[in-house]
Amino acid sequence: QVQLVESGGGLVQAGGSLRLSCAASGSISSINVMGWYRQAPGKQRELVTEITSGGRINYADSVKGRFTISRDNAKNTVFLQMNSLKPEDTAVYYCNANVGGYFAKNYWGQGTQVTVSS
Predict the structure, then answer these.
(1) SS3 (DSSP) at 65
(2) Residues near 22 by Cβ (< 8 Å), separated by ≥ 6?
(3) Has residue 27 got a pLDDT over 90?
(4) CA distance 61 to 58
(5) Of 60 and 27, more confident
């Protein structure tokens, strides 16, 4: 019904930058919140950042000042600009969208690998 398509992951050296994108398509009435999560091997999935349709933003303390989330509501697309990357940022990054309707539902992207080398 709703699909999230991610792009932009890859391998980068410490101090470098990557930009992730996630586009939602399908049967969409509204999107309440879009965000990014990440999961490293052996660790719990954690919230990196999220943005509401009204533009309110939250960041995890570990990425404040380095990552920037933005959203194009007209295109149902969310971006994650990652600067000053560190090896500890290495993880699978997942796009998430809470889609409104008769029943609000959570959808996830397939995940994209981000690897930061020393």
Answers:
(1) coil
(2) 4, 5, 6, 7, 34, 36, 77, 78, 79, 95, 97, 109
(3) no
(4) 9
(5) 60
Yes or no: say if 94 and 45 are a contact pair by the CB < 8 Å rule: yes
CB-based contact 5:66 (threshold 8 Å):
no
Q: Are 95 and 82 in contact (CB under 8 A)?
A: no
At residue 87, the 3 state secondary structure works out as: helix
Long-range contacts of 61-69 (CB under 8 A, 24+ apart): 62/88, 63/89, 69/35, 69/36
Digit-coded pLDDT (tens) for 34-74: 999 999 999 999 999 999 988 999 999 999 999 999 999 88
E runs forming strands in 1-118: 2-7, 10-13, 18-26, 31-39, 46-52, 57-59, 67-72, 77-82, 91-99, 105-108, 112-117
**Considering only CA atoms, which of 47, 15, 18, 5 is closest in space to residue 114?**
18
